[in-house]
């Protein structure tokens, strides 16, 4: 029976009648007949051990009675029923005893559980008290740790040193007799002294603020005065414009330029400032100007307006009304390339004037996304030039500034970071865009103050004024020298194409008076054609034939039919196309060429030709009268490599002589010596500075060398008749050494040739 059922059961009334002998109550119990009693209270009075013995006794009696009933039923008899009934009543009494013992056992179990529960509650209460105490201990330990680790604000204050404190602090604050032995009091005294000092400084700070306000008021008054002065100054500047123009002092124009320069990107601004300073200090003819749209430059620095919502609404409406086709991948790449190669709206233009009134126009641009500068060049002259065929690339904007510094051809970007940007948009190299964008020469970057180190690349390159200033003067001089040399070559090529080698009067002493060989051809050739020539392999293999050089082919001849003297009436003599630089050579001529002169009168001949404007040495009568057959033509081909840095870098000549076979430096030592005379000993041919006559002097030296080569050839005695090329040059010694080297060195004061 459960504890709940035992609680709900009503207490029973136990009467004395019918109870067994062991269950009978004494008289005191019988006196309480008719009253209620509680089994819970009885449990406290009864001994559990005796109840257990009673339980075992009752079970044994039940077994005995059951066995007797079984025995009586098995024997049968007339009196057995009475005995069976008697034993049945005894068994019921024993069953009642077992039930009571069962109830008592349940009551004891319930009380045991209740007692156990009460003990558990006490244990839980004690455990809770223990946890609270442990938490309080931990909290106290944390508080102790905080107190130990506490850092006061005064530790962050930079207090004065102890020596200074005891020296400057008054005695009522320092209290040396107290603070010397007590660190705490000492710290408090130092803090009091710090507070006192800060109060003084705060008072001084307030005084300074009041002075500052007074000064600000004065500044405002002066600003108002200056603002009222600006309109007056503007009116004065407008009135002084005619005076500025008359005195060539454009202050107003310069002011506008400086206002526009504020919108230039840093590299172009550095170039503008340094070029202007250089022009004012060193070159008054240098003109600096800014071109482009200022409004577009201002728009680059304006923040985008907050109109994203409006744009999204308009886009949604357009998508609903019309269906747009998405751009293809190629169109997107083209747009990205254009954006990457976008130039700044403003550019700086320099006009560099030379002595002959020619002007080099330089326009500098800045590529914003690539962070590099480019330049475009154009050359204009005071008079219109007749451009020869061979001078087509001399003043070309694509090549006029090439290799101004060695190796700087301007075909690739100087910024190493650009290659990674090109890979994203599919640009292989900048070479394909230089015609539109300009050339990114290294000297252009330096003029803009940009420097891109290769060993230690920088993330951002900042324009440097000192870098621009250090290269400005040298670069301007090189630019002037380049223009002057190209214009000099331009004029020389016009004469060379007509077979005239112009030799100035300052350089005539470098050559003999009589030069028979003549230039018959001067043409330009391509780089590929030059590399395919069999006698230029040495130059190509040495790496001296770069694609930035200019290549030409010269042909020098002697001994053709045209060597004969033309008639005096024509105004030209043999081997003479330029009266100023040539000397007529009377090698051979029919007498009929002298305008009907039948006899060989040297005085008449000399007088007649001098009258035509030519100089003639005394002729040999045998040469004018015997009418010899013309000699075989000796043709000397000269492949010329002209470096863009001419004339500081001399041209290179490679020779091939076609006369009695083909002769080059590989099979003829004298041809090699002729090349050495032109290429190695070029300093003798530079002439007066700046040496722009070097090329023409080298060509004239080639004509002289060909004369020496042909005239010093040994004559075959078995062949009758005069020598094919009679010797007219004075030579101290015709041959030297086992290789029979010829005398190619000309000694101009004495007029003879010797060996080196």
The share of residues in extended strands comes to: 5-15%
Reported for the largest beta sheet, the result is: 5 strands, antiparallel
Oligomerization: single chain
Q: Based on CA inertia axes, which overall geometry fits?
A: elongated
Number of strands: 12
Radius of gyration: 62 Å
The strand line-up of the biggest sheet is 5-6-7-8-9
Instruction: Please state the average pLDDT score.
Output: 79
In percent, how helical is the residue content?
Answer: 40-55%
In short:
By secondary structure, the chain is of the alpha+beta class. The protein is built from 25 helices and twelve strands.
Provide a descriptive summary of the structure in words:
The model is unreliable at 1-25, 306-311 and 560-631 (pLDDT under 50). The chain has 756 residues and is of the alpha+beta class. It is built from 25 helices and twelve strands. Helix 4 (48-75) packs antiparallel against helix 5 (80-149), helix 12 (266-281) crosses helix 19 and helix 24 packs antiparallel against helix 25 (694-711). It has helices at residues 3-8, 27-31, 39-45, 48-75, 80-149, 162-168, 171-174, 176-179, 183-239, 241-246, 251-261, 266-281, 294-300, 308-321, 329-340, 418-425, 434-437, 442-447, 465-496, 527-532, 537-541, 602-611, 621-625, 669-679, 694-711; strands at 287-292, 346-353, 359-367, 372-380, 518-525, 550-558, 634-642, 652-658, 662-663, 730-731, 745-747, 752-754.
List keywords for this structure.
756 residues; alpha+beta; four-stranded antiparallel β-sheet; disordered N terminus
